[in-house]
């Protein structure tokens, strides 16, 4: 019995050691001739407290701005991305169609059927080149086009080979418009590999937000944190699930006014991947 126990103990130790030395080849991105059905729900709660001169506070009242102001936003999005065949250089076309895009009141934001075209490769995120929508005003169409273009540039994750317990870090800028002022921030995201099998890899996510204001007219302070998890589909080299909760506070002062912002956000995205026809 003692020998059997020692054998089992050594066998389990061997398995744990073997698993800990396995290496994940992480290279998230799009593949040719593949369909990606993505559902995204992004909800946020904001509370803004204003203070300042009597003139400023009276202006708020005359414009029917509540103090404090509480705002809830919900963005419910469903898209399907379809990629084509690779050319000799390794590039392939990608078409993104908006199937659903509604706000907290159920109002459509981006018209259903809106199409975005671009190209990608196994090593690069899509590069968007055009947008087609019959029911969208030209100014808003340009805004959506730029938003999608910027999103893809920030989604590019590095190619990494990781063991369980190892992590990598990504730095990305963010501009948040508040009360007509662009708040510049730097987001530091750490992806830590918790476990993986033949199909999926599981990551924990932590984020920190740092103010990077270059506008000297304002005195700013603030910080934020985020936490969540990510599932990486190994056979398809794509992120199949991404969940993130974020908390952020900001203080902004000017000669005549000041504001304090508190926000809580919840981001959930899932992807279903299938080979194209």
Brief descriptors of the model:
3 helices, 277 residues, 17% helix, two-stranded antiparallel sheet, Lipovitellin-phosvitin complex, beta-sheet shell regions, 11-stranded antiparallel β-sheet, alpha+beta, single chain
Q: Would you spell out the secondary-structure blueprint of this structure?
A:
Blueprint: H1 2-20, E1 24-26, E2 34-52, H2 54-62, E3 69-83, E4 92-102, E5 115-121, E6 124-132, H3 138-155, E7 160-162, E8 167-178, E9 181-196, E10 200-211, E11 219-233, E12 238-253, E13 257-275
Antiparallel strand pairs: 1-7, 2-3, 2-13, 3-4, 4-5, 5-6, 8-9, 9-10, 10-11, 11-12, 12-13
Number of helices: 3
| CATH domain class | Mainly Beta
Structural class: alpha+beta
For the biggest β-sheet, the strand order reads: 6-5-4-3-2-13-12-11-10-9-8
Strand content: over 45%
Counting DSSP E segments of at least 2 residues, the number of strands comes to 13
Mean pLDDT: 86
Q: What is the radius of gyration?
A: 23 Å
Architecture (CATH level 2) name:
Roll
């Amino acid at each position: 019995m003692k020998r059997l126990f020692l054998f089992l103990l050594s066998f389990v130790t061997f398995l744990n050691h073997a698993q800990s030395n396995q290496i994940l080849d992480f290279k998230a991105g799009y593949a040719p001739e593949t369909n990606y059905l993505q559902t995204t729900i992004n909800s946020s709660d904001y509370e803004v407290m204003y203070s300042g001169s009597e003139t400023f506070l009276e202006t708020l009242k005359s414009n029917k701005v509540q103090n404090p102001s509480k705002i809830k936003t919900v963005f419910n999005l469903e898209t399907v991305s379809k990629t084509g065949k690779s050319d000799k250089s390794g590039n392939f076309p990608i078409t993104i169609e908006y199937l659903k895009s509604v706000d907290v009141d159920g109002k459509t934001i981006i018209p259903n059927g809106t199409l975005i075209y671009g190209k990608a490769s196994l090593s690069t995120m899509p590069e968007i080149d055009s947008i087609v929508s019959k029911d969208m005003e030209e100014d808003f169409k340009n805004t959506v086009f730029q938003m999608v273009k910027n999103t893809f540039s920030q989604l590019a994750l590095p190619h990494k080979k990781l063991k369980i317990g190892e992590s990598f870090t990504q730095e990305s800028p963010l501009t948040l418009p508040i009360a007509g002022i662009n708040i510049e921030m730097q987001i530091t995201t750490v992806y830590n590999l918790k476990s993986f099998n033949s199909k999926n890899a599981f990551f924990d996510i932590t984020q920190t937000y740092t103010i990077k204001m270059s506008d000297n007219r304002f005195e700013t302070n603030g910080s934020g944190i985020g936490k969540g998890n990510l599932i990486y589909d190994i056979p398809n080299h794509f992120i199949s699930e991404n969940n993130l909760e974020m908390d952020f506070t900001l203080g902004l002062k000017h000669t005549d006014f000041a504001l304090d912002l508190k926000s809580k956000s919840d981001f959930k995205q899932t992807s279903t991947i299938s080979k194209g026809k």
